[in-house]
């Protein structure tokens, strides 16, 4: 069985930058080092660090990379997504976030086919600018530029929004392969392992809304009925949330019942941006 070439690259680079590390091409069984696969990549992009020897929790020290030049191919394959960021991205992708494939077709390096890189993208209306900037601070390690102001006309009325893109990286291509079937978003089979309370908080902040009576509606109508039934069962089993499906035209929405919202808020309050608290009914604070 042939393995995904991108996955092989990704596994390789996690052990990386040793000329002794080799990759076997399952198509012709030739062996390559990363420097052979990417001969034009600068070997001096990362400076040797013989001073800092501190141990840190993996993924806890990610800083902004705005000032860094374009990554070399080798560095691009070194970039990973730690679990704390993966949970956030899961919530964003299920709601308003997108992963765009910016290249046409596949590339071939030394006879080994590689998938074109992808990047994460999200846009929010200007009234949700505080939330958009908050997301950006969480993901700025993967970005080359700050959020940008966009304007558009709808029925003759001018609207403003903020948006940002990440770099085009193999790690986002892996996510795209998991969350997309061609150009359509899908619910991954392992979504149970990709969700936590922070994921749910971002789904609500991105495209959820308060419904009269105290419940929360999640606008997940881009997914099929089967996928949403699978999703609400996970919410019940993993988070003890009682949810139902509400039909809207020919699509379905996920409704979190009032009693479950009260329990849920205690767990996600720390992740809710102040300007997004309007999505929860005011009396909810009495149940903290």
UniProtKB/TrEMBL annotation:
InterPro entries in the cross-refs: Homing_endonucl, LAGLIDADG_dom
Highest taxon of the lineage: Eukaryota
Listed GO MF terms: endonuclease activity
Keywords for the protein's UniProt record, in alphabetical order: Mitochondrion
Family matches, as Pfam families: LAGLIDADG_2 (PF03161)
Gene3D superfamilies from the UniProt entry: Homing endonucleases (3.10.28.10)
Domain Homing endonuclease LAGLIDADG: start-end pairs: 87-264
Keyword Acyltransferase in record: no
Keyword presence, Mitochondrion: yes
Protein name stated in the entry: Homing endonuclease LAGLIDADG domain-containing protein
Encoding gene (name): cox1-I5
